[in-house]
Amino acid sequence: MDQVNNNASQQNSAPQGTHADDAASKNTLMGILSYIGPLVLIPFFTNKEQPFVKFHIKQGLVVLSIEVIVWILGMFMWQLWMLLNIVNIATLILSIIGIVNVVEKREKALPLVGGFSKYFTF
After folding, report:
1. Whole-prediction pTM value?
2. CB-side exposure of 81: number of CA atoms within 13 Å?
């Protein structure tokens, strides 16, 4: 009987370090959401205290700002649709680069536009 109780208590105990793993996976998820258009608002309101997530939120806000500007320009200057589509493809590529950086746990600025993230202060 004692052996059954001993085995049950060993199975119920959580492995060490799971809290740290949960926090790291949450930071990764929030970092990925930062690059998916308006979903940047989720990590912005829930997890902007974490320096890693905050860095990627700022980068994601730069990409979102470009997308919004292109959308507004597209409404008024439909003649430039070909150029605006190229910019849309570029923002998609920048988002993919940002997501790869999050998955690899890097805080690396995005090419061409990463420097603009310093203008977002919160």
Report:
1. 0.79
2. 3
